[in-house]
Amino acid sequence: MTERRINRCPWVGSDNPLMREYHDHEWGVPVHDDRTHFEFLVLEAAVRNARAFLAIQDEFGSFDAYCWRFVDGRPRLNRWKAMREIPATSRESDTFSKDLERRGFSFVGSTIIYAHMQAVGMVNDHLVGCFRYRETQRLDPRVR
Q1: Would you state the pLDDT for residue 101?
Q2: Is residue 83 a contact partner of residue 131, using CB atoms and an 8 Å limit?
Q3: Does 3.20.20.70 match the CATH number of domain 31-139?
Q4: N or C: which end of the chain has fewer CB within 10 A?
């Protein structure tokens, strides 16, 4: 008895039964539930970005080593006095963002990447009057 060959979208591939299951029963099915919409948004971004993240770890030894290249290994120390001075992007976040996109990441526009750089201390955007401005400088001896 011969098995009937089923044509699927090429992105499914042939060697992953989970992808076939996802394609055949979930992908492309109209959704009208907010919880499911959220699940799909998170899942699509997470799976693709996880693969790209692992590839960067393999290439650079760690994602950390890759990231800090964009600021020459040291946090950028800004001297903002008012919130309105803080930019949404920088040359570094533009370059970082484009490189992540080239490597297969999604949802990594320059504004998102600049926010990431702030959050992980690659950029010190505490206002100079904030008590954390000087404290965060002492946390990394490589601060300029």
Answers
A1: 96
A2: no
A3: no
A4: N
Burial tier of 62 (Cβ tally within 10 Å: 0-12, 13-18, 19+): exposed
Scored b (16 or more CB within 10 A) or e, 83-97 reads: eeeeeebbebbbebb
The model scores a pTM over 0.70: yes
- Judge whether 52 and 105 are in contact, CB under 8 Å: yes
CB-CB contact of 48 with 101 (8 Å): no
Judged by DSSP in three states, 76 sits in strand
Q: Which two tokens stand for residue 71?
A: 């600021």
| Chain segment 100-136, per-residue pLDDT in tens | 999 999 999 999 999 999 999 999 999 889 888 888 8
Q: How far apart are CA 87 and CA 43, in angstroms?
A: 30
> Given pLDDT bands bounded at 50, 70 and 90, which one contains residue 98?
very high
